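Shift notes (night). Ran 4-hydroxy-tetrahydrodipicolinate reductase while the centrifuge was going.
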Amino acid sequence: MRYGIVGAKGKMGRELRELFSSHGDELVLEVDVDYFDERGTPEVIVDFSSPSAVSTTVELCKRYSAHLVIGTTALTQEHFEILRELGKQVAVVQSFNFSEGIAIFQKLLREFSHLFAGWDCWIVETHHNQKKDAPSGTAIMLKHEVGREVPISSLRIGGVFGEHVIYFANTYEVFELKHSAISRKVFASGARRAALFCLKVKKGFYNFLDVLEGGIEHG
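Came back to this:
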């Protein structure tokens, strides 16, 4: 697979390059602030950078007719409209979290959160102290799956890759669901899985649950 990375010099850019390369994929495009290295035509572009790069990334996808895997957080409604429009031309997989466990977390909430109607609910998310957005995009995704207004507490401490806990409680009991990422490699692996998915499906706008349910094996 020929691929490109937007945000190539960042921490996730390095993780993506290492993971993809370990599978024999060919890195043909690297883009970052004041940096552009083109060595071929990518089939898929992966972007885990920042919202300010979305327009550039979309233009690159159009230029190369490349599919897009985007894990950038803090996207606005305008960004989503741009990405959905791109999905009319190529396959786009968007998620705030490319962890398989978080996707399963979402599905569990979608299927069973109605059973906790009448219970208190609270989400606590913890990330490293360099993460700029709060609450995390993942916490917002989980809140959406609960289907009602839920408070979110955000902690930015140390080097935590990502931890999300959702509490349901009534007068007599507390029910807790928790997911912890112990390495950025989990996100890189999910991104590669999404990239392979893009090569097998029709153009459109997809999420990571679509990838898991599409039967694509681990990246």
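Residues 185-200 form the longest helix (16 residues). The chain has a mean pLDDT of 96.
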